[in-house]
Design brief:
The chain is mainly beta. It contains five helices and 49 strands.
Length: 806
Amino acid sequence: MRRLLLIPVMLCMHVIGMAQNVTVKAVDQPAAVVFRSIVGQTGKNFVYSSELLKDMRVSVNVKDKPLKQVLRIMFKDSDIEWKIKGKNIILKRKMAPVRSRNRQIGMPGSSSVVPDAAPTTEMLDEVVVVSRLEAPAVATSEIGAKKLTAHDIVNTPVLFGESDVIKALHMQPGISEGQEGLSGMHVHGGESDENLYMLDNVPLYQVNHFAGLFSAFNPEAIRYIDFFKSSIPAKYDGRLSSYLDVRTVNGSHDGHHGSFRLGLTSGAFNLSGPISRKTSYSVAVRRSWFDVLSIPLLALANSSDEQEKIRFRYAFMDLNAKVTHRFSGKAMAFASVYFGNDILKTGSTYESESSSSYRWDDKDKSDFSWGNFVAQAGLDYRFNPSLTGEFTAAYTRYFSNMKSDVRVKEYNFGNVSETHSRTGTDNNIGDWIIKADFDWRSDAGHRVRFGGNHILHSFLPARTYRSHTVGTTQTISRDSTYAYTANETNLYVEDDWNINEKFRMNAGLHLSMFGIDGKSDFGFGPRLSFSYRPDENWALKAAYARTNQYVHQLSETYLSLPTDQWVPVTRGFKPQNADKVSLGAYWQSSDRFFAASAEGYYKIMRNLVDYRDEYYLQPPVEMWNARLCSGKGTARGVDLKFEKVYGKLTGHVAYSLAWADRTFPDKNNGLTFPARFDNRHTVNILLNWNVSAKVCINAAWTGHSGNRFTLLPQVWEAPDFGNNYSGDESPLKAPVNNWQLPFYHRLDLSFTVRNSRGYWNFGLYNAYCHMNTVAIRRAYDNGGHPVFQKVKLLPVIPSISYTWQF
């Protein structure tokens, strides 16, 4: 059987829809290039033998014609026959009839015979091979770009079996996961807030659930993702490290379809279908079961202690909804909503044993809520065969609020005294966005993308209210934080120029303006990438990009918590910017089954923002920015990757060698120190084995140098003042990130079995149960001597889920 190649090249994804009328203008163009235009307009995939269209070129000029008519025109003078089957256009070579009995075949003198019955036709079996959505790296001018499908995401084993966009990207070179099992992402020495996460081209500010154990992107709603880390398209700006755009599925016009998944930690449901002949919908909902699972555990814990009752509840949910309407072959409108929310309720009630003279009651509770809301509407319009545009209006909001309530009552010889403390903190950011993006293609090998947007920001960084009541005396305080309003404007243009068969160049420029608090900052972001292809299987590339960032996130821990704040660049601080130079070499085998790449980079980051040393000593009513300082950083390294792209066994081996450091005048005495995730060596191995049409086995192994952290090895001990009081200990100041954890490694496995109704998924996180060290803590041994202990969290964790498809 010949190897078949699936090429779902989707370069105009905004105008996919379900229209079957096609407009194509091509003069002596490669067949694959013409296919890309048809795929972009119809959403169908071309499936054909890898050698079928070798060196074939096409000339066609049709406007708004049915797909079948266009295919007849394209192949009328060829020996290729075609058939539309569902979402696939299957191409085969026309085969001549073969006499089937008592006729010798093969080399002269051969005794091989075939049956002498009616003449029959030999045809290829129809096989669709799951393939990459992206073009081969040797064919583009991009460095460090990656496109993943929902299939790629589902086939990456993860904690609790919860498929995750960001954790799938962790397997790519140059990307660090941060803490074990979490959805943080640190790209080429950057911090987690230096990545721009987008949902259908609209920014999201909070992308994690449960301190980062899960990301906010529901796999059931994902169509594909675009990821850029080195050569950044001119369209994107606002972050220093990377850009991730998650594109959601459109509704089906072929009937109502969906799935329901039930797992150990969450459940998900999605449904899509037609509303009318031109209108479709899609809905996806996901919710966790943690609050349900904790009910019997809490009941058991509270039944064993009559004095203390524990309060705990945690849950998260996601909702994606989208409606699309196609007016004609030229225009399609869409509207979508996303809502993600986490709630956490903790606390306890303690009642001391009653006595005739004294007892006390203690009640405390804390309520946390945080999440995202996104609403957008837009219009995709094809002005002519060469020019398309997308116009969007959107609102995106991140919100976080925390409330705590502590009440203590003392009963002392009939007298009752009460102390009551309440604290509330609000933190949010909201953006109103209007944008226009255009895509123009010329016959001379140019693809020009240009456009702009305006964003009205609203920031409220951690406004805190405190109330403390003792008896009848009440004290109330509020910090001096106030809301900010900012205006941001962006303009961009880029030309992806396919100069000839050997040379390709992408040149662009991004201009930005950020106005806040009576001042304006301007950003200048040139982009340039260049590719030289000495033959069809090799490419050498070089790229330069400058990016600018006007907002940043303040995080006091390595975890993603509701205490993290998004704040703007205000007076006293300059916008962050980075310059990055990249070089790359790329190879693919002649049959396109194997590929390899080597990418090197050097990045300089300026005006980075972090907490000062001993920032926690600042008075709580001080402005939030009084605790901050600015500095610079550098990152450099090499990313290597070898992958098998097609076949029953696919996957890759990736290795990264990297350095990342920071220098802050008001931190670490002005001395340079390593970044938190300065992981010198990182190895990622991902394998996907399609044993059969019903069985698939996935394995992912990761290993990297340990994370950095600040260890306080010495303390100051107060002298003994007598009366059995030995005083307190205070840690002495130590260099920042002066200690490195041991080498981290882990194997994750998953096993998928399909049946007629859906599929089972079985998983093992940390399959060989290597308990990795995630922190170091200071404690005391039995003799009262101080010791340092390793903190290890996650053993082997099994998972199981079933997905019912209909």
